[in-house]
Amino acid sequence: MEAGSYGYNREQISSGGVSGPLDYYVSATHFGSNGFRDGNGSYSQRLVGDVGYQVSPDFKTRVLFEYAQQNTRSAASLTLAQVLKDPNQSAYSNTPQTYTGATGQTEQSMRREKGSTILGDYSTLNLNANSDIEGGFLYKNFPLRNEGGGFTPATGT
């Protein structure tokens, strides 16, 4: 467990073990921060792990997984005049989703992962002292939600 300035906090709990031909590891983490600048907070939560099994002296397999959620806010870039006036300020316009940055463009202010998932397997078959066959699969699902849209010129074109 860690804690600090600007609402910073991080926690983790994990466990692992071996029982005969089976081994495992699992970890759950949480991170949160309000950020130094207004509107610059973020948090994330993750669950990761893997389970391995030695089926025989010549064949072993391992399943791995990860599930994560993340919410990141960006206070955007500031001009030098804005930094000199208040370095903690956000460059947000009237809505919390968009801002007009130093480049004069309306930009996205929040990125949320609604729940990314990774699931995979890795297996090895030992044929002899000099040869192995290895294979596996990996499934990834990373849906993103970018609030406020993409980079759009301030003129609306």
How would you characterize the overall build of this protein?
The chain is built from one helix and eleven strands; from the N terminus they run βββββαββββββ. A hairpin with a 2-residue loop joins β4 and β5 (59-73). The chain is mainly beta. It is elongated.
3D shape? elongated
Low-pLDDT runs of 5+ residues are 93-108, 148-157
Main β-sheet: number of strands, strand sense, barrel status? Answer: 8 strands, antiparallel
Content of β-strand: over 45%
What class do helices, strands and sheet pairing give? mainly beta
Helix content: under 10%
What's the total helix number? Answer: 1
Strand segment tally: 11
How do the helices and strands follow one another from N- to C-terminus?
EEEEEHEEEEEE
Gyration radius (Cα, Å) is 23 Å
Q: Estimate the mean pLDDT confidence.
A: 78
Quote the distance from N terminus to C terminus: 48 Å
Topology:
Elements: E1 2-3, E2 9-19, E3 22-33, E4 42-56, E5 59-73, H1 80-85, E6 98-100, E7 105-108, E8 110-128, E9 131-141, E10 144-147, E11 152-153
Antiparallel strand pairs: 1-2, 2-3, 3-4, 4-5, 5-8, 6-7, 7-11, 8-9, 8-10
